[in-house]
Design brief:
With 253 residues, the protein is of the alpha+beta class. It has two domains: 120 residues; 107 residues, no CATH class. 34% of the residues lie in helices and 22% in strands. The strands form five sheets. Strands 2-13-4-5 form a four-stranded antiparallel β-sheet, with no helix packed on it. Strands 3-12-11-6 form a four-stranded mixed β-sheet, with no helix packed on it. A two-stranded antiparallel sheet has the order 1-14. The longest helix is centred in the C-terminal third of the chain and has 22 residues. About 11% of the residues have low confidence.
């Protein structure tokens, strides 16, 4: 990545080796610590969203990518490249999620289906103000419903879903040994994290005492605070907007 606003993990590790005067033979442990630091900082601040187009399995599930942490959108594409989101349906059962005949195992034909093509059959329930659908669902068309099953790492799709793919936008976890870059504002915070964790679990009989560990921990959280402030600074126009809003509320009161 040729961008001055980002720095590579390798350069951060090299900076730590220079600062701590340690041999390069400890690179594997330090890389692991840097990897954990990316996870800790990235989850809250600078992880980018991945967008993938995934096929539907034969049992109406979708396999979740290995680096998946959390979804931001699940849907299909319209004619101008926008994602039409599916509706989250917590009522979908996770029973038989990995079974090829999941559909047959999760349907009970002895229970009458009150819905056809997403349109409720009964509308004559009086709620005190007017007639509404008996089961509280709207009659508008729904592209489909879904539910995330983290135990089996699949996305469940409702019976009415009839497309051959879904588009999943999600927060991704970094993968070990890949090349990674972090915003330059977090460079010192990641170095401080490595320094803290490098001695955090060493026995107190070593030449690092509890005070050293405490100081390095405090240093990390201080660098983290500074990194957050630098990464998302309050712009001048935002200050003016906040000041105007504060003045308006003061006058109103």
């Amino acid at each position: 990545m040729n961008n001055n606003s980002y720095c590579s993990i390798d350069s951060i590790i090299a900076a730590y080796f220079v600062e701590s005067e340690q041999p390069d033979t400890r690179r594997y442990k330090i890389w692991q610590l840097a990897f954990r630091g990316i996870e800790q900082l990235g989850l809250d601040f600078f992880y980018q969203i991945k967008s993938v187009k995934l096929p539907i399995n034969s049992n109406k599930t979708v396999s979740i990518p290995l680096d998946y942490l959390n979804y931001t959108k699940v849907g299909i594409l319209n004619g101008i490249g926008e994602i039409i989101p599916l509706k989250y349906n917590n009522s979908l059962t996770t029973y038989a999620d990995l079974s090829p005949d999941r559909k047959a195992k999760t349907e009970d034909n002895t229970f009458f289906n009150y819905y056809q093509f997403n349109v409720p059959i009964w509308y004559n329930y009086w709620n005190g103000n007017g007639f509404v659908n008996l089961y509280g669902l709207s009659g508008e068309t729904v592209v489909g419903t879904f539910k995330i099953d983290r135990t089996n790492n699949v996305i469940l799709l409702g019976e009415n879903f009839c497309y051959e793919y879904i588009v999943l936008e999600y927060v991704a976890s970094p993968v070990m040994d890949n090349e990674y870059y972090v915003p330059v504002q977090f460079k010192e915070a990641l170095i401080a994290y490595i320094g803290w964790k490098d001695i955090a679990n060493l026995p107190t009989s070593s030449h690092f005492n509890l005070g050293d560990k405490r100081d390095r921990k405090n240093n990390f959280f201080n660098e983290r605070r500074l990194a957050i402030a630098r990464y998302k600074p309050l712009q001048l126009e935002e200050k003016h907007s906040l000041a105007a809003e504060s003045q308006r509320l003061t006058i109103k009161l």
